[in-house]
Amino acid sequence: MIKQMIGIDIGGTTIKLALIDVYGEIHKKWQIPTNITENGRNIPTDIVRSIQQTMLEQNDQQAEIIGIGIGVPGPISPDGQIVVRAVNLGWEDMPLKSAIEKELDIPVVLLNDANAAALGEMWKGAARGKSNLVFVTLGTGVGGGIILNGKVINGVHSSGGEIGHIPIYSQEQRTCGCGNTNCLETFASANGLVKTMQNMMEENQENLSAVDVFTWIEAGDQKAMTALTITVNYLGQAIAGIMNTVDAEEVVIGGGLSGAGDALLIPLKEKIDQFIFPAIRGNYNVSKAQLGNDAGIYGAVYSYLSSNEILTMEETLLR
């Protein structure tokens, strides 16, 4: 009988789900809208019903659903039972694990969505075959996950890997969504890049996007190139600081801003090298994430497999 898991990535707009076997092969993918009305109270029920319907449609007696991994946009309680806070969903102390397990009678593992994406890239993506990496997502904010010896650095308060909230120094004051001032993501995210570009323009362009900035960079626009230099300087110093602390072998860059490819990655690598400890310089890679929107569901499944010691040594090597 084929052992399969259900990987789930809960986003603010959609909830992505997939049936994945122990070797990482996806057998089915689907998604449902995220219902954030009434502070997201109906989301657990929506997930349960969707899984039940899919299992009914599959009607495959050769497959056994042995577990569920769920990536959520917020910290998880130390006991792994509660989503402490998920602002975009309206959740405070949501007992998601028990809510799903009670209805489906299938064990559930919860983890932060950025950590899930990091595990996904380690298992099946840009860092495949490696077990020490720093994963950074560059979107509207800056997220991340740090993995050492195959384990996520989660921390006592489930806040390990909050790369976007590393404090930086600037004479300019930018307020972060977390309430602090001058967090890394206020300068190094796609929104941060756009803000920096807007500050240098004579006329404010409200609809300016990071794509516009990189288009101007490609055309040789000096202000756009300066905006990127400022962004990369903050990001490179922060990543170098992390690398000097954990000495990982791979830095994986994901999120919408990673779509710029070498236009971002090459100057970023140069900036990291400027600040990184000499013994590490030249002994690590900076790569673009490969799994896109599937990273979270892969990582959620891997988290379940590893936490329950289901992967054999052979299966781990085949990851």
TrEMBL record:
Enzyme Commission identifier(s): 2.7.1.2
| Family stated for the protein in its record | Belongs to the ROK (NagC/XylR) family.
Q: Can you cite a GO biological process for this protein?
A: glycolytic process
| Pfam families referenced in this protein's UniProt entry, alphabetically | ROK
Keyword entries, A-Z: ATP-binding, Kinase, Nucleotide-binding, Transferase
Full protein name: Glucokinase
Q: Which PANTHER family match?
A: BIFUNCTIONAL UDP-N-ACETYLGLUCOSAMINE 2-EPIMERASE_N-ACETYLMANNOSAMINE KINASE (PTHR18964:SF149), ROK (REPRESSOR, ORF, KINASE) FAMILY (PTHR18964)
The record's GO molecular-function terms, alphabetically, read: ATP binding; glucokinase activity
Identify one Gene Ontology CC term for this UniProt entry. cytoplasm
> What lineage does the source organism belong to?
Bacteria, Bacillati, Bacillota, Bacilli, Lactobacillales
Domain of life (superkingdom): Bacteria
